[in-house]
């Protein structure tokens, strides 16, 4: 149901309070506490008083905001003006968190509810014991979402009447409410919703990208059930463009099967920051919902989502079969080569005779099952960012050389250069155990609801093709990208964009060592959980725009608005992109093929983190400093402008 209770003027004033309370209780799927019933009764009374002078309106109590897994207390449609009202029963203050909450609801309607795209939306906060309102000033920015109004109960009717006075004639509210809702949650929001047992269909949009995601999940489920029924061992390779929903698909598989006996699934990732952020988000969310002890909740969360290296180290010491028949390996392209894995095992784990790639070892562990198992590998193209990360090649080699009895499911896209670093996938997909499925490739980015083609634009920029980049930039629509040479201006722009709890922050490549004179210290480590989860009041959060995150901190995660700080490790000149590494006291040209790939991919990651828009900061440099002369940066700035990116005014 869009809302627990819906009424026009005639019905709202004809229905008794008990009838309305009954409808609200019937829609409420949780145990109804007396405090909730009393809160509803008070809201009904206040809304009747506030709407008494309105000749026509449509009222919704407990209006669904699916992406956030919440419901707005009240939504009132008067003409073509939408009021989102949040009551804080028993409060007499305009709490900052409550202001952000009601503004988030309004922004959510604007961004994701089709019927609200062109309407004026007014968020209103009403603490029921407030004696006086805040400054009532109607500000409607270009987004058509007003600044939140802080109103006492006595002024609510006046505010509704004043701000709806210029509204157009009443239109079909039923059609408005029924129009499509196309949310694109952040991976943190999605993890919270899925772990709380919300259906994935409730939190993702329902266009082509989501249909592709649904079909991908159907194939994975079919492979799992077939493997179980026929006692087979299978592996699925799910590929996709950045932000297409690979991690979301993996989390959904894991949550759907978290309590299903021998089909229980565990989500594994070698991305330490991703595991830390998602785990902490789930722990905090569950603790706020249930009030349980953090230790107990953490134990359950860590059984659901684990660092793949902990999984690996456990089964390095134990020869038993894993407790799970299904494992989801996130960012499987980052698994280590034989050389990197052997080096690590010798130096860090004192295992002198380890002679396997990480994919081979992980498959050997799963192959210990006597009956069946299913492995789901989520593969990001162009996402290898560290020494020894093998891409898809080591998985192919392990299956070909050691596990020919395994059934392989993939899309033909694994032959593309972004996935097939060693050019061996074309021959591999022609072998007998491989079955191709077009829907195991996620082709549409769902990270940025404003720019699905952002990854195309970034690819052209990093390929040095200004003409193609400019054409792709023109297709970005209302996804703003600006360029500035002033970091202070970049910070100010981010603060202006970040309304409600929309998250913004500064990011840079891990090789951006000469941004230090600008105050960007990439060597200062951040705590990813604090940076991504803490609020504006916390100096450790991204909101403070002091600590900068690198590609290692943000891969697999996202911001709403990003400030991308560009250094001379990737700089443009008349010959194209020049790739460099700062070592000692000077820049050195990067010649190694893999190191060049990692550096470009670092910029690919940081340029595709923002959901709503970004500003790119390219410093001016200083000709007195041989490590950052202005020529290093001016050419880069000119090239980015030639790609269509305008200067920030």
Walk me through what this model shows.
This protein has about 650 residues and is α/β, with parallel strands linked by helices. Helices cover about 40% and strands about 20% of the residues. The chain contains 24 helices and 21 strands. The strands form 4 sheets. Strands 7, 8, 9, 10, 11, 12, 13 and 14 form an 8-stranded parallel beta sheet that branches. A 6-stranded mixed beta sheet has the order 1-2-3-4-5-6, sandwiched between helices. A 4-stranded parallel beta sheet has the order 15-21-17-16, sandwiched between helices.
Topology:
Elements: E1 3-8, H1 9-14, H2 17-27, H3 34-50, E2 58-65, E3 70-78, E4 81-88, H4 96-112, E5 120-127, E6 149-150, H5 156-163, H6 173-178, H7 187-195, H8 200-203, H9 208-230, E7 233-240, H10 246-256, E8 265-269, H11 272-290, H12 294-304, E9 305-307, H13 308-317, E10 326-330, H14 338-348, H15 358-366, E11 373-380, H16 393-402, E12 407-410, H17 425-428, E13 434-436, E14 441-442, H18 454-462, H19 466-473, E15 481-484, H20 487-497, E16 504-508, H21 528-533, H22 551-554, E17 559-565, E18 570-573, E19 576-583, E20 586-589, H23 593-607, E21 610-617, H24 630-642
Helix pairs in contact: 2-3, 3-5, 7-10, 7-11, 9-10, 11-12, 15-16, 18-19, 18-23
């Amino acid at each position: 149901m869009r809302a627990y209770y819906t009424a026009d003027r005639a019905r709202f004033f004809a229905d008794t309070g008990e009838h309305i309370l009954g409808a609200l209780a019937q829609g409420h799927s949780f145990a109804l506490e007396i405090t909730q019933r009393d809160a509803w009764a008070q809201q009904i009374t206040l809304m009747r008083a506030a709407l008494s002078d309105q000749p026509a309106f449509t009222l919704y109590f407990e209006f669904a905001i699916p992406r956030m897994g919440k419901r707005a207390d009240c939504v009132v449609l008067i003409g073509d003006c939408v009021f989102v009202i949040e009551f804080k029963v028993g409060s007499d203050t305009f709490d900052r968190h409550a202001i952000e909450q009601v503004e988030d609801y309004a922004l959510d309607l604007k961004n994701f509810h089709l019927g609200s795209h062109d309407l004026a939306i007014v968020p209103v906060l009403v603490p029921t014991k407030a004696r006086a309102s805040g400054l009532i000033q109607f500000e409607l920015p270009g987004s058509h979402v007003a600044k939140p109004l802080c109103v006492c109960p006595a002024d609510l009717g006046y505010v509704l009447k004043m701000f709806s006075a210029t509204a157009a004639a009443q239109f079909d509210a039923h059609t408005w409410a029924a129009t499509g809702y196309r949310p694109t949650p952040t991976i943190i929001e999605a993890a919270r919703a899925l772990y709380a047992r919300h259906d994935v269909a409730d939190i993702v949009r329902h266009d082509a990208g989501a249909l592709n995601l649904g079909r991908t999940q159907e194939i994975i489920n079919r492979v799992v059930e077939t493997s179980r029924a026929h006692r087979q061992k299978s592996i699925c390779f799910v590929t996709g463009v950045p932000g297409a929903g690979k991690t979301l698909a993996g989390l959904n598989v894991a949550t759907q099967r978290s309590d299903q006996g021998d089909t229980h699934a565990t989500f594994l990732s070698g991305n330490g920051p991703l595991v830390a952020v998602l785990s902490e988000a789930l722990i905090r969310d569950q603790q706020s919902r249930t009030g349980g002890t953090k230790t107990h909740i953490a134990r359950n969360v860590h059984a659901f989502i684990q660092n793949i290296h902990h999984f690996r180290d456990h089964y390095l010491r134990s020869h038993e079969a894993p407790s799970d028949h299904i494992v989801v390996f996130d960012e499987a392209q980052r698994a280590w080569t034989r050389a990197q894995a052997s080096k690590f095992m010798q130096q860090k784990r004192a295992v002198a005779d380890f002679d396997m790639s990480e994919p081979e070892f992980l498959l050997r562990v799963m192959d210990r099952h006597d009956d069946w198992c299913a492995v789901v590998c989520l593969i990001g193209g162009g996402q290898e960012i560290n020494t020894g990360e093998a891409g898809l090649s080591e998985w192919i080699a392990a299956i070909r050389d050691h596990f020919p009895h395994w059934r392989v499911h993939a899309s033909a896209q694994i032959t593309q250069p972004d996935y097939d670093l060693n050019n061996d996938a074309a021959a591999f997909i022609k072998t007998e155990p491989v079955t191709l499925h077009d829907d195991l490739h996620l082709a549409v980015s769902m990270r940025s609801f404003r720019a699905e083609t952002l990854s195309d634009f970034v690819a052209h920029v990093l390929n040095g093709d200004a003409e193609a980049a400019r054409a792709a930039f023109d297709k970005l629509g209302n996804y703003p990208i600006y360029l500035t040479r002033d970091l202070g201006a970049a910070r100010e722009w981010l603060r202006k964009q970040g309304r409600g709890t929309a998250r913004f922050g500064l990011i840079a490549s891990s090789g951006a060592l000469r941004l230090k004179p600008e105050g960007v210290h990439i060597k200062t480590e951040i705590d990813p959980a604090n940076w991504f989860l803490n609020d504006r009041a916390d100096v450790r959060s991204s909101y403070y725009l002091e600590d900068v995150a690198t590609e290692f901190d943000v891969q697999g995660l996202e911001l709403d608005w990003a400030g991308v700080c560009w250094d001379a490790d990737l700089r443009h000149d008349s010959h194209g992109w020049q790739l460099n590494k700062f070592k000692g006291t000077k820049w050195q040209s990067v010649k190694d093929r893999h190191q060049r790939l990692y550096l470009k991919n670092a910029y690919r990651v940081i340029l595709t983190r923002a959901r709503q828009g970004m500003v790119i900061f390219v410093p001016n440099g200083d000709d007195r400093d041989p490590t950052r002369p202005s020529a290093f940066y001016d050419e880069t700035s000119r090239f980015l402008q030639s790609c269509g990116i305008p200067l920030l005014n």
